[in-house]
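Progress narrative, Year 2. Work on XapX domain-containing protein from Kosakonia sacchari advanced from sequence curation to structure prediction during this period.
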Amino acid sequence: MKSWILSLLVGLLAGGIYALLGTRSPAPPVIALLGLFGMLVGEQLVPITRRLLARQPLTMAWFRHECVPKISGTPQPEPPDAPPRRD
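Result:
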């Protein structure tokens, strides 16, 4: 949660700087967000390609464990045989 707040604060600071300089944001918000999403998904093409070149299976379990947390920002799921966490 701390990184979300920091990100919001930096975004507000950047917006304030744009306003003080009298310029507009370089991209409309929707286009900028789609570009960021594309970057996150594109980052996962490298590990997928490496896995395919190594002739390792590309399973949904592997994708959910390795790629989905990096795209969505959620923590990696625990392996099924891991002991329960005590937070």
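Residues 2-21 form the longest helix (20 residues). The mean pLDDT is 83.
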